[in-house]
Design a protein that fits this description.
Elements lengths: L6 H17 L2 H12 L1 H8 L4 H7 L8 H6 L6 H8 L3 H23 L8 E4 L5 H5 L9 E5 L2 H9 L5 E4 L14 E6 L8 H13 L1 E11 L9 H5 L3 H11 L1 E5 L12 E5 L1 H7 L3 E9 L2 E11 L1
Parallel strand pairs: 1-2, 1-4, 2-3, 4-5
Antiparallel strand pairs: 5-9, 6-7, 8-9
Bound molecules: S-adenosylmethionine.
Length: about 300
């Protein structure tokens, strides 16, 4: 065992210890035995575990559990996690688990049925962070993900994410899953970045693929986000963006990126619930949720009208 010699490696070692204590001796042993029976038995067994247990065990499957390692995805490097999500390791896992639990609970609350075993799409899935945890909720054959950035797909493929993943468009008119309807579509930290045109296109593409009794969950940022964005504050744009949000319910600060069909589709975005109700009328806001783990992401639950 190597001895941690930097602050970051001490923190990583402490966090690994925390995961080991949480999982105990038996989790990997038990699941390895089930995996040896069959792959589908393993995925059934994951659905009887909690989101946090599945998330914790997927962080680092020890080498001796060869069958688990054959069927389950590997963890993305800290660099990939930080690049897509701004954080990594256990602190990020806590946020991810909280979101998946909140969405599962929100689905049950707003549709009167459990999400377990239903079809789920992760819209803007990035490196597959949340798709991994969704294995505690539904089987890999019911899990779908899409992202318009080819690098997201490369990373998901490299880690062997257990879901059907496809490339989507930055300004979509449809989703890359012809004829398929989803019970749940969620998009974490995606609408917090889209231009109004890209967000409108995304919501109408998703609308075509939501089941009549399905639900969508997106995250949005509040207007005080602008006082916490270092670039926006340094450029003294925060007051203007807050004013724009107050007037319109939508404010967008584009990143320095290539335009897609004349529109810079990606940057930072704040949206109000009132704006969603006024502007995106084929969806109805049925509830919202906030999490202490991530105060700049408000979850909005939407049902198709
Ligand atoms: C901040 S990352 C979040 C990734 C993932 N949802 C998560 O929470 O781990 C934003 C993701 O949105 C994707 N994205 C960018 N433009 C998009 C668009 N127009 N429609 C859908 N996704 C987009 C990016 O490629 C990236 O994977």
């Amino acid at each position: 065992m190597s001895i941690p010699n930097t602050y970051e490696s001490w923190i990583d070692a402490l966090n690994q210890q925390r995961l080991n204590n949480f999982l105990g001796q038996d989790v990997y042993e038990d699941l390895e035995k089930v995996a040896k029976i069959s792959e589908s038995a393993l995925f059934d067994a994951l659905r009887s575990r909690s989101v946090d247990v599945v998330g914790a065990m997927l962080m680092n499957i020890p080498e001796q559990y060869t069958t688990l390692r054959k069927y389950l995805p590997t963890m993305a490097s800290p660099q990939v996690q930080k690049h897509w999500t701004g954080d990594h390791g256990v602190p990020l896992l806590l946020q991810s688990c909280a979101f998946v639990r909140a969405v599962r609970e929100g689905f049950h609350l707003h549709t009167n049925r459990p999400l377990d075993g239903l079809s789920v799409l992760d819209y803007g899935c990035g490196w597959g962070r949340l798709l991994r945890l969704m294995l505690a909720v539904t089987g890999p054959e019911n899990l779908f993900g899409c992202d318009p950035w080819y690098k997201s797909l490369e990373v998901c493929d490299g880690d062997r994410i257990r879901a059907n993943i496809a490339l989507s468009d930055y300004l979509p008119t449809d989703l890359p899953f012809p004829g398929r309807k989803f019970s749940l579509i969620y998009a974490f930290s995606v609408f917090t970045h889209l231009s109004e045109r890209a967000a409108t296109a995304a919501l109408s593409a998703c609308r075509k693929h939501i089941a009549d009794d399905g639900m969508m969950a997106i995250t949005i940022r509040p207007p005080n986000y602008w006082d916490h964005d270092p670039t926006v504050v340094r450029l003294r744009k925060n007051e203007g963006l807050k004013r724009e949000h107050a007037l319109k319910g939508f404010a967008f600060f584009p990143h320095d990126r290539e335009a897609v069909d004349g529109d810079i589709t990606y940057g930072d975005t704040s949206i109000s619930v009132d704006f969603i109700n006024r502007r995106w009328g084929d969806w109805e806001v049925v509830g919202t949720e906030r999490l202490l783990q991530d105060v700049m992401q408000t979850i909005v639950f939407l049902k198709p009208r």
